[in-house]
């Protein structure tokens, strides 16, 4: 996305026009506007352009005997860093004002990574490019700059080593590196897709494709061909229109946009149709400001989503993109152009000043990012109300076993509340049960129970099926072990909860068979398996039914409203607007589970009345996200449990000195 078409071959306006073809679909894709569902391939077009322009400059400098590493990096610093650091620094006050603690901490981490040209590595480790959360990352787009800047560090040295070698050897080395890069991407795309997406070793072939075009033009001159250029445009537009977020990319899918870009670069000419279109003054102008336009679009869109708390409407998105154009024009005129000037009257006149300014800026911006990370995102920004919500609206997971932290042989003394009592109760289930466990344990301990917390991520009482996740693979064995423990120890009460809406009401394929991992299309056998295990329990059983859930995380949306506006604008949601999967699955469970020793607890009663659900009560979230209960919410559901048990159970003295889980 950097450099400009200047070499002995002459300035090519169609290359700047190609930048326009690359950047506009990227902007529309990230804004969620039609028609470019595969607009992200515009970044691949930029990679080919960058490889071509940088290689053209290097080939010409080497041929003229004026090649200088210092001169090359001076030009890169003048071109890349000023606009980049302006955008990065502008992000900071908006992040301070509108972002939550974790969000601002991650923004500051990405600031440091961007300054050090390793943001592609950072985002590979931290995020999924196509996840909803990615839309809220203001500097996510800097990953492509990281790829290019790392390429700039290595490619000049490679060409210097190859200089003076026979042309075939030079081409052979470039093709070998490009081929190895492409092959490695194909090898790892199915197992490590984000690694292939973000990292230079798997993207280098795209920049080398541009460099190969430069080599051909440098050695053999240009040979315009309007038909081949149009074919290249067809390949690029095919990818932009036919691909979407579900396309396996890059891999083979990257070939059409890369090949198409190479054909345009090789054969487009202002004398032919495509060349004339790309050389139109408005198209070229968008190409000239494309670097600044690319820099601004992601922060503007991300912070708008942070401020609004939801996806902006189409007219708002169009207005935001027009704002990006305005910011890009101003940045191009007042930042890019002044810093690229040389000479005594220039803003940064000489090479030494450029390097000194660049080093100081990199150190300063990196320092800001590191300091913010060490300060944990500056939680002191929060008001007392925000701080209380932030501290108290997590969910308990201390005694929840996982695939990486498997359960020991029961009993686990650290997860037993009120030990030594004559009656025993087990809290069994997945993370939903874990979030309810402290409140349930206190209630049951007050009734004279020794309470065992038997929770595991993703696990219900099913023995023959589990959720379609690696994290759920241990669940059948975990359930078998705990059921054996409950039976052997003759537990008096089992309270079980789980994400039953996903288990029994999700899309086909979300559950698999425990033996072999075959996806389940019909939830009927899964329900029968669950019913079989519940009906086999000799103790009294309370089955916690699935509860209605909001579309967005309650804790985050509450904190976001407080952060942006200082007040809660909305705390009630119309019940009719919520998905009815929980109600449907709850009704099926009631109809299927018919044993007299099994009673049902519906936590929706603590969240909703007949018309509305209030997931925030008295300023505190009842759910930590969309599913798990906060301590406040769990206390309300625990009151339901007490009422349910009160019909046949009277409290007995309890040793309150016994350890009780505390929500952190």
UniProtKB/TrEMBL annotation:
Entry GO MF terms: acyltransferase activity, transferring groups other than amino-acyl groups
SGNH domain boundaries: 399-641
Protein species of origin: Limimaricola hongkongensis DSM 17492
Protein name: Acyltransferase 3
Entries under InterPro entries matching the protein: Acyl_transf_3_dom, Acyltransferase_3, SGNH
Ranges that cross the membrane: 39-59, 80-101, 107-125, 171-189, 195-215, 227-243, 249-266, 278-296, 316-334, 354-372
Domain spans labelled Acyltransferase: 13-332
One CC-aspect GO term: membrane
Signal sequence annotation: none
Keywords, alphabetical: Acyltransferase, Membrane, Plasmid, Transferase, Transmembrane, Transmembrane helix
PANTHER family the record matches: ACETYLTRANSFERASE, ACYL_TRANSF_3 DOMAIN-CONTAINING PROTEIN
């Amino acid at each position: 996305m950097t450099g400009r078409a200047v070499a002995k071959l002459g300035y090519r306006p169609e290359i700047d026009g190609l930048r326009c073809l690359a950047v506009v679909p990227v902007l529309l894709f990230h804004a969620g506007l039609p028609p470019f569902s595969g607009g992200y391939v515009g970044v691949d077009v930029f990679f080919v352009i960058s490889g071509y322009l940088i290689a053209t400059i290097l080939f010409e400098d080497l041929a003229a005997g004026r090649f200088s590493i210092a001169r090359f990096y001076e030009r890169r610093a003048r071109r890349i860093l000023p606009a980049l650091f302006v955008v990065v620094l502008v992000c900071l006050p908006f992040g301070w004002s509108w972002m939550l603690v974790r969000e601002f901490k991650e923004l500051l981490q990405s600031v440091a990574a961007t300054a050090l040209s390793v943001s592609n590595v950072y985002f590979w480790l931290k995020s999924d490019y196509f996840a909803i959360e990615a839309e809220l990352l203001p500097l996510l787009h800097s990953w492509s700059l990281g790829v290019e800047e790392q390429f700039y560090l290595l490619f000049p040295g490679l060409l210097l080593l190859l200089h003076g070698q026979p042309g075939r050897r030079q081409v052979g080395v470039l093709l070998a590196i490009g081929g190895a890069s492409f092959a490695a991407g194909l090898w790892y795309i199915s197992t490590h897709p984000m690694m292939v997406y973000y990292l230079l070793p798997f993207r280098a072939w795209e920049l080398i494709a541009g460099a190969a075009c430069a080599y051909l033009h440098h050695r053999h001159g240009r040979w315009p061909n309007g038909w081949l250029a149009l074919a290249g445009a067809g390949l690029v537009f095919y990818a932009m229109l036919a691909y979407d977020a579900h396309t396996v990319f890059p891999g083979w899918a990257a070939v059409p946009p890369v090949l198409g870009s190479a054909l345009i670069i090789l054969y487009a000419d202002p004398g032919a149709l495509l060349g004339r279109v790309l050389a139109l003054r408005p198209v070229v102008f968008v190409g000239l400001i494309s670097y600044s336009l690319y820099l601004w679009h992601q922060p503007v869109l991300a912070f708008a989503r942070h401020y609004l708390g939801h996806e902006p409407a189409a007219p708002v998105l169009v207005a935001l993109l027009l704002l990006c154009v305005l910011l890009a024009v101003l940045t191009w005129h007042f930042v890019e152009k002044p810093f690229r000037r040389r000479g005594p009257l220039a803003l940064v006149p000489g090479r030494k000043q450029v390097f000194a300014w660049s080093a100081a800026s990199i150190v300063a911006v990196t320092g800001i990012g590191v300091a913010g990370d060490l300060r944990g995102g500056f939680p002191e920004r929060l008001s007392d109300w925000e701080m209380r919500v932030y501290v108290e609206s997590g969910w308990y997971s201390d005694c929840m076993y996982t695939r990486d932290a498997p359960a020991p042989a029961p009993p686990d003394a650290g997860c037993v509340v009120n030990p030594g009592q004559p009656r025993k109760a087990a809290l069994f289930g997945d993370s939903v049960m874990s979030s309810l466990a402290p409140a349930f344990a206190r209630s049951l301990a007050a009734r004279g129970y020794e309470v065992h917390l038997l929770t595991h991520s993703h696990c219900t009482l099913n023995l023959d099926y589990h959720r379609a996740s690696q994290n759920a693979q241990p669940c059948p064995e975990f359930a078998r072990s705990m059921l054996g423990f409950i039976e052997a120890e003759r537990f008096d009460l089992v309270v079980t909860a789980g994400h039953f809406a996903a288990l029994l009401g999700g899309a086909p394929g979300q559950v698999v068979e425990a033996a072999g991992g075959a996806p389940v299309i019909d939830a009927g056998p899964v329900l029968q398996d669950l019913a079989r295990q519940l009906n086999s329990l000799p103790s009294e059983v309370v089955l916690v039914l699935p509860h209605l859930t909001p579309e967005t995380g309650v804790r985050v949306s509450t904190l976001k409203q407080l952060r942006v506006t200082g007040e809660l604008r909305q705390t009630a949601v119309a019940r009719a607007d919520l998905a009815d999967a929980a109600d449907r699955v709850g009704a099926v469970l009631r109809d299927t589970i018919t044993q007299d020793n099994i009673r049902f607890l519906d936590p929706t009663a603590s969240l909703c009345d007949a018309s509305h659900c209030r997931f925030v009560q008295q300023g505190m979230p009842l759910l930590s996200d969309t599913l798990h209960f906060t301590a406040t919410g769990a206390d309300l559901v625990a009151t339901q449990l007490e009422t349910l048990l009160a019909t046949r159970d009277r409290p007995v003295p309890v040793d309150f000195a016994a350890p009780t889980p505390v929500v952190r």
